[in-house]
Specification:
811 residues; alpha+beta; three-stranded antiparallel beta sheet; 16 strands; 10% strand; elongated
Length: 811
């Protein structure tokens, strides 16, 4: 799309009071209400005109119809646009809403910026969406399931505390139904669930259009049927009276069935079908990723050095203001057009035969300077070109210490398009050097017919004839100039494209012609040029789920246990200290420790009461009792044989005694438990880190890097070896691995005196004190957190990457 200025804005500049005199300047069909009413105008008035044009493009009709300009102007002020339903064109609902918002009568109700408009249009564009990768889809479903975690915990706790049969099955039905409604409504009316929106995903039909409510409901139903169906069936059978938990194999059936269901969901995912799961193939939907807009690196506007010129130097309507260079029979001058207020370049050639034909200048593509006109001055032939803003590649690349792949991709694509155009038109691109590559402020490259500096200033960069047989040599020089060195860290997908410029199109070449090379660049135009902060943060967010879940459990467990029957607390959270008290009583039987003996009898009374209450409860209670470990069941049976029918007073007295003589775990409530949960999760994270180092060695980066599309390369661009990848992971996980090593050290090398739990009376042996003091654990956690912060701030080269000499790039 092009925007052409045919003089209206120039006329307004000369006579800006036209709207005040009653005259109207412009096309009424595209004029905003405030423009017609002679009110102040801003960019939102231009956005109204964009909406009117977009309306016409998608329907073939104008938003307002009238036999004369006055009728049209009156409709713009008073009426709504013609409804889309009256046109014989199916316009998606989302696009209708965008256009109608653009055409709102009030400026405040329209989009307030072009960026807002673009954000609204991208999900509706086939070029704005791409098949979503597995990493983002995994992250989205994790977020969505975590949203329902509190609901599931609350329902399960309520069901287990009820004395009704089938409580767990009822809870298992409520949560999937809530999830079905959640997914159906959010994916139909919001384009995606909370998790999908956070990770830039949208749900569409297979053809990219917006799905109906019935289609997304069926999609969610199939997903939940496969994902939650096995667990719901298992709970229903348990509630119906089948004692499945006591069976050594069937008790693990829900986990196996869920893994099987997940396998069914993902077994259909292939790159060629957009990674469509079974639920998507069944419903004709797809999960698409909204392509992120990579902001172009700003190109500075550099004023080239000039020599003065005589005041009278005139070239047609242009007046020369300076000489950029003059070399024998050619020169390049800067001139100014006082009528149109623009700068131009004047290229002089003393030999008229050396000037390119006018027909060729007129037929050049958009990758060349805009040619304006030709004339003669003092016997010299000159051509006028529109003076661009920006700088040359030879000046820009050294100033930035070498360009990145994002900038070089745009430069190579612009040059490839222009070379292809010249080859098709003239058979050759002419004599070119790298100093004839001009970079506009937008990052687009132009091919100049002449250098901006004197050819004598760069004898090592002589111009060569660029033909369909030598284009690789020219672009290879451009790559060397842009990167400023031979080896640079490139995305994994880009290495083959750049290497193609060196292998001469041999057997391993990715392209055979300039057209193939351009197509290869266009094929990766939407792929990330570097590892973004969001992508790096995504890897760390998955790791952070571990302490997050631990903290959630610490916050939720006290409330869950408070709703549990007393007998279940005795055989679950209190079982370990009770069993320790029994073992201590057996070991002191010879000495006749009366306190230990009485404590052991109290434990047996409590265990006997727990077994009786569990057996007399509902099916859920019996299933929970059957799920206890065999050793625990044996202790309960032994206690029941000694105390077959303990009364309530004896049980209450036994619990009171145990409360004062056994150090029972205290489940804290509230935010004060969060720090303890974080510290508890460090050990789990340390084991994950050890596994991560091993996986980094085996997979050259690790599982999470592969899921998030990240590769590890050396600083010179060569793929990193396995040992270097493992070293990077070892440095990244070193604080937590050190914590694990200290905690696992033999007692003789303990690092300090811990702040362990209170040691109680002689009823039970003291609990082991932690070998790593709190301040050491918090210090190591702080170091790990700081390393993660640096990794997000510098996603390609964090502390671990710098220490191991690697760079992270997209796969």
């Amino acid at each position: 799309a092009k925007i052409g200025d045919f003089g209206i804005s120039k006329s307004l500049e000369v006579d800006s009071h036209l709207s005040q005199t009653g005259a109207f300047l412009g096309t009424p069909y595209y004029a905003s209400p405030e423009q017609i009413a002679a009110e102040p105008l801003d960019l939102r008035s231009d956005l109204y005109s964009v909406g009117a044009m977009l309306y016409e493009l998608v329907t073939g009709k104008l938003p307002y119809q009238g036999t004369n300009a006055s009728a049209v102007l009156a409709q713009v002020l008073t009426r709504d646009p013609v409804p889309f339903a009256q046109h014989e064109v199916a316009v998606p609902g989302g696009l209708q809403r965008v256009i109608l918002r653009l055409l709102a009568k009030s400026k405040e109700k329209r989009f307030q910026s072009y960026e807002q408009l673009r954000t609204a249009l991208v999900p509706l564009s086939s070029k704005g969406l791409a098949p979503a990768g597995l990493a983002r889809r995994f992250g989205a479903i994790v977020v969505d399931l975590l949203i329902f975690l509190p609901l599931g915990v609350a329902l399960s706790a309520a069901a287990m505390s009820q004395a009704v049969r089938g409580g767990l099955a009822l809870a298992g039905v409520v949560q999937p139904l809530a999830q079905l409604v959640y997914f159906a409504l959010t994916e139909r009316y919001w384009g995606g669930s909370v998790g999908k929106r956070l990770l830039g995903l949208r749900v569409t039909r297979a053809d990219g259009s917006q799905p109906s409510l019935g289609r997304v409901t069926w999609r969610a139903a199939v997903f939940l049927l496969l994902y939650a169906g096995p667990g719901l069936l298992y709970q229903s059978l348990t509630a119906a009276g089948l004692d499945l938990l006591s069976h050594p194999v069937l008790r693990f059936a829900p986990g196996f069935l869920q893994l099987l269901a997940i396998g069914v969901l993902v077994c259909t995912m292939r790159r060629r079908n957009g990674y469509a799961g079974a639920h998507e193939l069944a419903s004709g939907t797809r999960t698409m990723a909204v392509l992120a807009r990579e902001r172009a690196t700003p190109v500075p506007r550099v004023a080239p050095a000039m020599a003065p010129v005589p005041e009278a130097a005139a070239y047609g309507p242009y007046r020369a203001t300076g000489t950029l260079w003059r070399d024998g029979g050619a020169a390049l001058l800067l001139a100014h057009d006082h009528e149109l207020h623009r700068d131009v370049w004047i290229h002089e050639v003393r030999d008229a035969a050396a000037a390119p034909p006018v027909e060729r200048l007129r037929a050049r593509g958009e990758g060349s300077l805009p040619w304006l006109q030709r004339g003669t001055h003092d016997g010299v032939t000159w051509d006028a070109y529109g003076a661009p803003q920006g700088t040359t590649l030879a000046d820009w690349a050294p100033a930035r210490r070498g360009l990145g792949w994002r900038e070089m991709r745009d430069v190579l694509h612009s040059l490839a398009r222009e070379l292809e155009s010249r080859f098709a038109r003239d058979g050759t691109a002419g004599s070119l050097s790298s100093r004839q590559v001009w970079i506009e402020q937008s990052g687009r490259a132009l091919l100049l017919d002449f250098p901006v500096q004197s050819p004598l200033s760069a004898p090592d960069d002589a111009a060569v004839e660029v033909t369909p047989a030598t284009w690789r040599d020219f672009l290879r020089r451009i790559v060397t100039t842009g990167f400023q060195r031979v080896g640079v860290p490139l995305p994994e997908y880009a290495r083959g494209i750049v290497a193609d410029l060196s292998d001469g199109g041999g057997p391993g070449s990715t392209s055979r012609s300039i057209a193939d090379f351009r197509t290869a660049l266009e094929g990766v135009a939407a792929r990330p040029a570097e590892v973004s902060r969001g992508r790096r943060a995504g890897v760390l967010a998955v790791v952070a789920c571990v302490p997050g879940l631990v903290v959630l459990l610490r916050l939720a467990v006290p409330f869950i246990m408070a709703s549990m029957p007393a007998w279940y607390r005795d055989v679950s959270i209190y079982s370990e200290p009770y069993l320790r008290a029994l073992r201590h009583a057996d070991s002191t039987a010879v000495t006749g420790d009366s306190t230990a003996r009485r404590t052991a009898e109290a434990v047996r009374v409590v265990f006997a009461a727990a077994l009786r209450e569990g057996r007399s409860g509902n099916q859920t209670s019996a299933s929970l009792l059957a799920a206890l470990p065999p050793a625990m069941r044996s202790v309960l049976d032994s206690a029941a044989q000694r105390y077959p029918a303990p009364d309530s007073q004896a049980v209450a007295a036994a619990r009171a005694w145990l409360g004062g003589h056994v150090d029972l775990p205290k489940l804290g409530v509230g935010l004060a438990t969060v720090p303890k949960g974080v510290l508890q999760s460090l050990t789990v994270l340390a084991f994950l880190g050890a596994a991560g180092v091993v996986l980094a060695l085996l997979l050259r980066g690790g599982v999470l890097f592969r899921l998030f599309g990240i590769a590890v390369v050396r600083a010179d661009g060569v793929p990193a070896g396995r040992l270097r990848c493992a070293a990077r992971a070892l440095v990244a996980w070193s604080p937590l691995l050190l914590l694990l090593a200290l905690a696992s050290a033999p007692p003789g090398v303990s690092v300090g005196v811990g702040t362990g739990a209170r040691v109680t009376a002689t009823a039970a042996p003291p609990a082991p004190e932690p070998r790593v003091p709190l301040w050491v654990r918090w210090t190591l956690f702080g170091i790990a957190l700081a390393g993660a912060g640096v990794a997000v701030w510098r996603p390609t080269r964090g502390l671990a990457e710098r220490a191991s000499g690697v760079v992270l790039v997209p796969r």
